[in-house]
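Let's practice the habit of predicting before peeking. Look at the sequence and jot down your guess about where helices and strands might fall. Then scroll down.
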Amino acid sequence: MTGLPTLEPEIADLGVALGLLTPSPSGVEFDSTWFDSPGTHLSGALGDTDRRNALVRFADTVIGEGQHDESGGITYLHLFDLRTLAANNTLPDITVQVSLDANPASYVEIGIAVSVATGNPATATRAVIPLYRAAKKNQHVAQPFALLDGGVVQLSTDLTFSATAPATDEFGLQGVSVSVATALTNNPAPSFSLVLKGLHLPGAAQSHDVPIGAPGANIEQTLLSLVLGLVRQAAEALSGQAAAEAGAALSLLGLSDGSQVPSLPVADLVEHGADKLRDWFVGVMGDAAARGHWLQALADLLGGTVANGLVQVQIGGSPVHIEIGLGATTGASGHLMVTPTLGLNVGLDVAGAIHLAAEAKADLLTIDTSTGVLTPVPDVEIAVTAMGNGAGNAALLLHTQHLDVGSVRLGLAVRNGTPQALVQALNVSLDGHTQDVVDLSTPDAVVAELGQVASTLIGDLLDSLGAASAIRAVAGVPSIPAPERLLRDLREGRSERVLRGW
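Done guessing? Here is the structure:
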């Protein structure tokens, strides 16, 4: 090695790139062995990181106007652009570059890149064609010609719609980037990606670049957030009844103005995925007030009302009502269990004094919000309910000096797959002692709940009803035995006789 006086930086970089010079503490030194095997020295220029970087600096200084491009770990060295070469700005804006891809472990892939740009609209299109593979230091390349060994041809386009960020309450998209990559051989498989650049959803604090179809991108969550933003923007352009209906629908997600339902965290969905959707759902269903607001939004959407935690919707002008509910309890695991309920209710008046209602209600499924496990139809009820038809005491099915009964339900229930009779007295008051539900479905239930007052309660409930025969006829129940005999049979353990009597 021979020391050299200080050289101009571009000359030193060129010498290092060619292997004629080597870096030293004092600058560069001349390698006299270069002339013994110039081909060997030249062949390692791109595979050696220091020499490749020196070549990039030289190209930047001499022909690249002092800079180069970097994208995805690939270096693009400027060769020329058509307008500058021809000194004519009316020509298409075409630039030719050399691509150096050092991402592979054993080689550097050299290619040619051609870019075309337009100003209105602002676009940038680039095609990259790999040509040659130079082995890295101490590595070997079996097939140096890239296109013959799976070299990937890339085509990409960037479109910019706006450089201005939208207002917080507006939907905005600053641009779109599309790319396609494919090899001329069967391997690797072609790939496609779409990036929504500067996507801003109403209410979000900032914009995001959202990839669709790229490796690792969750297309479901991306489309969800995009659709929500578009729907909200479209809803805000409506008026009148259409606006009210759209607002009610968005209230279910907390996205409408004035909604008391916690807002769906759209920005968090984009950044963190579907877990945030589950967290939002658990938060709404697990809070009684939030769940109530959600049910009210559903009632507004369907044109119904909320009563006793159920959305009630009348079908046209008919006596048919649909009931929709959402139950939320804490399961054995300590996590929230949510149960959607659907019911159908048909009511009619009998003899002007009794209101009969036939109803069917089912828990559609139970959702374990921790595991996502669904338990289908755990609970079903089909029953006929009789109640008073009037106001005050006239609203009671039975009103005596000692006993008041709001209504009676007769039917069939399926609890966790097991059918059982359904006989209940609702809103019962006996000498001032009130009970919401008195279960008369089984002999054991009668004894357990009524005890020593069973005779009085059953007697007043069934024998004192002027409309008892009408109830039995509607429900398909045969004649009920006298209460004294019923209680005696229960106490003596003759449950089969009791059941035959019913």
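How did you do? Residues 350-365+377-501 form one domain.
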